[in-house]
Write a structure and sequence with these properties.
The protein has a 6-stranded antiparallel β-barrel. It has 691 residues and is an alpha+beta fold. It is 36% helix and 22% strand. The protein folds into 6 domains: 133 residues, Rossmann fold; 155 residues, Topoisomerase I, domain 2; 126 residues, Topoisomerase I, domain 3; 117 residues, Topoisomerase I, domain 4 (Orthogonal Bundle); 41 residues, no CATH class; 79 residues, no CATH class.
Amino acid sequence: MKLVVVESPVKSKTIQGFLGPKYRVLSSYGHVRDLPKSELGVDVENDFQPKYIIPLKARKVIQLLKNEVKRAELTIIATDEDREGEAIAWHLAQVLDLENPKSEARNPKPYERIVFHEITKPAIENALESPRKIDMNLVDAQQARRVLDRIVGYKLSPFLWKKVARGLSAGRVQSVAVKLIVEREREIEKFKTQEYWSIEALLRSRKTEFSAFLSKKDGLVLDKLAIKTKDESEKIVQNLKNAEYKVENIEKKEVNKNPLGPLTTSTLQQEAFKKFRYSGKQTMRIAQNLYERGLITYHRTDSLNLSDLALSTAQKFIIENYGEAYHQFRKFKTKSKGAQEAHEAIRPAYPDKNPEQIKTQAKLDNNQYKLYDLIWRRFIACQMKAALFDSTTIDVSAKNYVFRANGQTLKFDGFLKVYPMKIIEATLPLLKRAETLTLIKLTPLQHFTQPPGRFSEATLIKALEIEGIGRPSTYAPIISTIQERNYVEKDDEKRFKPTEIGLVVNDILVAHFPEIVDIKFTANMEENLDNIAQGQRKWKNIVKEFYGHFSHNLEKKYQEVSKKEFTEKPTGKKCPKCQAPLLVRLGKFGKFYACSKFPKCRYTESLPENTLNIKCPKCKEGQIVEKRTRKNKIFYGCNKFPDCDFALWDKPLPGRQAGTGQTCPECGSLLVEKNKKISCSNKTCASFSKK
């Protein structure tokens, strides 16, 4: 019997179904060794040697695997093909004594390492025919990333505890993501809105009406901001009184719209957010399940390569289902920095089966089906002909001005038959050059320039990819981490904005640890990790170069940086308990009033902006304020805590009179907003609920 070890039980079940009784496929349930959480776990004095331990939750699994290794004639490690998968394979080989020269075991067991891009029977059989040993270059690249992240996190976080607030943490790549969000927010704050005007002419040719917009004056193209004020626009309207409107030029041409390439990790997360509002974390969790069940190829990739077999299967499917006129063989090349071109793009494992068939056969839930459908359609579409449009541009002259009208109609749908996109069609009337038109109305339209938008998950991932920050496997964890740390939060439109603590932490890092948040430095470090993976550099040399400057600077900043500089501001008020000066302090979850005599006096109070101006219904003295739990979850409670413990998870609604809240007509309890409905805060009062 041969033993095959993979990471997850879903993956093991899928592969076991392909291999039959001669193989036993078991799961390691992820990582079997890691750095300890209670300490740095890296010996910086001894060539940065990592101190790996077996986590408590993995010990039972390791013992089971050790017993199976003893019985097996060969152990085959079939973890994922990326750096993390290679590192898991290496850790498994170490703990299971698989041909490990340093092992205490007298007769280490033989092993093979196999990799595959999709979990299908042919892919597994091909992998078994071409095994290899563990690639230590990939392992070292992953070790370097882990050690660098651990050094930054465990060395810089205590500095933030001492200089800002306890419970904060810093990350090598996450801090750069926060910086991007902070810089965008400050760009928005500094933005100065500009007024500008456009002029629309509603014209008629015989019985057909169409719109044209002013585009030229005296033969020169007018840019967007050319007409700056209402007076300027009205002057142009006045100048055009009694003008004759004539067709000056008609240009007709065919325009192609080509399909987008197949999906990568980055574009999958971007499209899933745009179409379904899935978070990066949610998208990757669903994709992981689809991959492990053998339905899609490996979902952590930045390559746009496609296998010849997949291309021929797509060709056959398109011709059989849509006709030969719809097929066009295409290959794509990624522009992403450091992309692993040896890998393949994300595509369906069985392109010849449509999503409805897969949904039934694999019993996909709604979320799994939607993501699979997106992957399938994107892949099939990328092998189809371009959509063809008839485009028409009409220039209409009036005195020394020119108005332009643009129209387009779909002539051939091409890839749009499979991958629908929002296309604006506008039909223009059939006109002749020099034809005179009738002006129905001339309308000046006011506009204002808009600031750049905040990052959504999709646009933040795109920015990280463009800058070369992180790699496919890290995008979702980066976004998840910066939210969990309360450095950023989402606004009502699900876009990122920095929190107060996020702004302060970013400013400290920018001022005192610029290399940690420098985009070029971080992107260069990713290139160094790629060089390690390719065997061009040694991982310990990379870590040593970074640590020398970092540790020296950290030691210096402990002496130079004052906590008061970032976290305390005088108020001119007195503490009501001890009469000492009252300060505005910054904590992990925002600003609050605190006594300057802390810890002797522990008086704290919410800031006015966090107060809802609703009197506490329990003690009748305090005010309801917005608070946060240690896990950053918002709740609403009395500001007289601990003397009064009144609290609600849902936001109470203010009453018509100042200082009051709306109350339930049935029981008199506060009304709250819950899931966009107004409900009674009293759980025992279930009779009152309205939209």
